[in-house]
């Protein structure tokens, strides 16, 4: 509690800092980390190669800037209003989403650590009139978790940590909230199923795909792409569970279909993905064992 009280003035200051100042600071921090952290730089370059970037170093360096822009935008999120959206946001795929929404009372929404991912939830709420219950990881630090809860909760957007979230979802969905989560990150093996992604078989968080298979919900995607200081909200989908398959096969097929959407988006704009993350830290080999060699230098 003491740490939370100490951090509140800093939080207040950041939440009242102009967006242009936050973005400028993010660019400086991103470039600084690019030169300071040889380890993260190597990870980003390796990921850029996996995505097939034409200029891997330029792509990796740009991703550091976008990553820090996404980090600091969380302090601006509560100031997103109709005026901001009119001036800075364009939406792609809205009519398709509306047609899908007419056919399905419930569905799941997936985003990724791509572009302005800190703003994706509130932009989906404002631009698509979508009530979201977003799911994220706990830091296991009371002060940080409480602050994140405040930063990620809005009118029409609620935030819960991942532990126990699946049990809470039915009640939230009865209130008109749709589940929203990013599953493009590595996670504990017990929460995952190994599935193909960018040429590798990697662990993918299985909770939401498994729910969609049980309930036969379609999956829609929201990506918030930076275009200078403007943002393009890209809506994709739907992806449906294949009802002709057995349940376990159906989950795996849905996850791989989801990964195909991620892969298409990330290969098209590799610099906007969170390249400093060790997404390919654990890779399943042909014999079923897990390998950790992807980020070893020289391999």
| SSE sequence, one letter per element | HHHHHEHEHEHEHEEEHEEHEE
Strand order of the largest sheet: 1-9-8-2-5-3-4
Shape: globular
Low-confidence stretches are none
Supply the number of structural domains.
1
Describe this structure in words.
Helices cover 47% and strands 19% of the residues. The protein has 299 residues and is an alpha/beta fold. It has one domain. The strands form three sheets. Strands 1-9-8-2-5-3-4 form a seven-stranded mixed β-sheet, with helices on both faces. Helix 1 (2-15) runs parallel beside helix 8 (142-151), helix 2 crosses helix 4 and helix 3 (38-50) packs across helix 4. The N and C termini lie far apart (45 Å). The mean pLDDT is 93.
Task: Offer a few descriptive terms.
seven-stranded mixed β-sheet, 11 strands, alpha/beta, 299 residues, 19% strand, 47% helix, globular, two-stranded antiparallel ribbon
Element layout with pairings:
Elements: H1 2-15, H2 19-36, H3 38-50, H4 56-73, H5 82-88, E1 89-92, H6 94-103, E2 108-111, H7 120-128, E3 132-136, H8 142-151, E4 157-161, H9 165-174, E5 178-182, E6 192-197, E7 200-205, H10 207-215, E8 219-227, E9 230-239, H11 247-268, E10 283-284, E11 290-291
